Amino acid sequence: MKKLIISTLMVVLFLGIQVKAQDVQEKLNEAQASYSSGDLENARFALQQALQGINQAIGKDILALMPDNLGGMEKDVANDNVTGVTAGFAGLFVNRNYKGENKDASIQIMSDSPMITAINAMLSMPAFMNQDPNQKRIKIENYKALLTKSVSSDGNVSYNIQMPFGSSMFTFSCNGIADENEVTGLLKNIPVDKIVKTAE
């Protein structure tokens, strides 16, 4: 347990994460004291709180990497979402929305995504991909991704791009842009590789 506590702190220092070090250190100290006294339940709870602080700091670093403007759409900072650990979900969740005239987009990073297995399976089976003309494999930098096009009953076109990396999922969604090339072009303005390295 002591090694786990020390390892967790080392990860924070190694990544250079700007987290409230005092809060994380307090939780790590509390976890160690609880473990030493045999209170394993509180030791686990304190470690989870320390991990939450670390994940939130990672999430803020990821948001700082995202562009302010994306194809004429401005970032919607008021609705930025960074979650470390919540009930029923342990891990990192980051979301940023962009809004423009008659179009919008969002970028989402989620660790331990329940969609990882399904998306990886679809990306590894070319025959399956050929069955749906609205789905195709694309490359984002050096990563494989699944692009899905949808058209609503009123003719509004939306795209959803899902890119697995490790045990996490990068998702880019946009509405109101009909041209697929314009959508994939927007991805070139997102530092995907840096986001992946920060999230891992």
List keywords for this structure.
200 residues; alpha+beta; Protein Transport Mog1p, Chain A; 2 domains; nine-stranded antiparallel beta sheet; 7 helices; 9 strands; 32% strand; elongated
CATH class membership of the largest domain: Alpha Beta
The largest sheet, given as strand count, sense and whether it forms a barrel, is: 9 strands, antiparallel
How much is the radius of gyration in Å? 20 Å
CATH architecture annotation of the largest domain: 3-Layer(aba) Sandwich
The overall average pLDDT, rounded, is: 83
Q: Find the structural class using helix and strand composition.
A: alpha+beta
CATH T-level topology of the largest domain: Protein Transport Mog1p, Chain A
Distance between the termini: 22 Å
Strand share of the residues? 25-35%
Shape verdict: elongated
SS elements, strand count: 9
Quick rundown:
With 200 residues, the chain is α+β, with helices and mostly antiparallel strands. The chain has 7 helices and 9 strands; from the N terminus they run αααβββββααββββαα. The longest helix is centred in the first third of the chain and has 26 residues.
Structure, described:
The protein is 42% helix and 32% strand. The two termini are 22 Å apart. It folds into 2 domains: 2-62, no CATH class; 68-199, Protein Transport Mog1p, Chain A, CATH 3.40.1000. The chain has helices at 2-15, 21-36, 40-65, 116-124, 126-129, 180-187, 192-199, and strands at residues 69-70, 73-75, 81-86, 89-100, 103-111, 135-140, 143-151, 157-165, 168-175. The chain has 200 residues and is an alpha+beta fold. Helix 3 (40-65) runs antiparallel to helix 7.
